[in-house]
């Protein structure tokens, strides 16, 4: 089974209690179980991670690039300003690995600072506004890329 990591940035450990009208009522453990189950259906061994720490997220990108691991990433607030994470994410493309950016909400329909992503230019694709289902679409996109 191909290993895929699903990495989540700051404040996504607060899913379920954080702005449920925007991010839904389900928590990170539910997302973890959903992603693992969706991965199984696609023949992917999925590991879901979350950190509030930029350096940790960057380190995960270095590791994924070195180990040849495809990535689904919800960069959360890092989306909008972390050039360090964008540079690290670039290394996945350099390694020929899919990187699917996903957002639970639709940032384009929210505050103006959310309308710009520094990650999208280095992502293979971006999925927004579909809730947790966006992660399923992202895993399907990974499977599609790997089948090419
Ligand atoms: C988010 C959107 C970001 O703007 C925000 O900072 C998040 C979550 C989303 O999943 O919709 O933390 O990435």
TrEMBL record:
Catalytic residues in the record: 23 (proton acceptor), 103 (proton donor)
InterPro entries: DHquinase_II, DHquinase_II_CS, DHquinase_II_sf
Family: Belongs to the type-II 3-dehydroquinase family.
EC number in record: 4.2.1.10
CDD domains listed in its UniProt record: DHQase_II
Pathway: Metabolic intermediate biosynthesis; chorismate biosynthesis; chorismate from D-erythrose 4-phosphate and phosphoenolpyruvate: step 3/7
PROSITE patterns cross-referenced by the UniProt entry: DEHYDROQUINASE_II
Keywords associated with the record: Amino-acid biosynthesis, Aromatic amino acid biosynthesis, Lyase
Chain's role: Catalyzes a trans-dehydration via an enolate intermediate.
Subunit structure: Homododecamer.
Pfam family, one: DHquinase_II
Catalysed reactions, semicolon-separated: 3-dehydroquinate = 3-dehydroshikimate + H2O
Binding site residues for substrate: 74, 80, 87, 104-105, 114
Entry's Gene Ontology molecular function annotations: 3-dehydroquinate dehydratase activity
Annotated positions for site Transition state stabilizer: 18
GO terms of biological process kind: amino acid biosynthetic process; aromatic amino acid family biosynthetic process; chorismate biosynthetic process; quinate catabolic process
SUPFAM superfamilies tied to this protein: Type II 3-dehydroquinate dehydratase
Organism: Galliscardovia ingluviei
UniProt name for this protein: 3-dehydroquinate dehydratase
Database matches in PANTHER family: CATABOLIC 3-DEHYDROQUINASE
């Amino acid at each position: 089974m191909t290993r895929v990591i699903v990495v989540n940035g700051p404040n996504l450990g607060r899913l379920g209690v954080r702005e449920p009208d925007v991010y839904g009522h389900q928590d990170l453990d539910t997302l973890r179980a959903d992603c693992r189950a969706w991965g199984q259906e696609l023949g992917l061994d999925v590991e879901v991670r979350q950190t509030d720490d930029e350096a940790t997220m960057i380190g995960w990108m270095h590791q994924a690039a070195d180990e040849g691991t495809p990535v689904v990433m919800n960069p959360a607030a890092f989306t909008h300003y972390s050039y360090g994470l964008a540079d690290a994410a670039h290394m996945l493309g350099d390694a020929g690995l899919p990187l699917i950016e996903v957002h639970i909400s639709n940032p384009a329909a929210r505050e103006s600072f959310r309308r710009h992503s520094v990650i999208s230019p280095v992502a293979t694709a971006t999925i927004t506004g579909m809730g947790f289902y966006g992660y399923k679409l992202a895993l399907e996109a990974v499977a599609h890329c790997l089948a090419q």
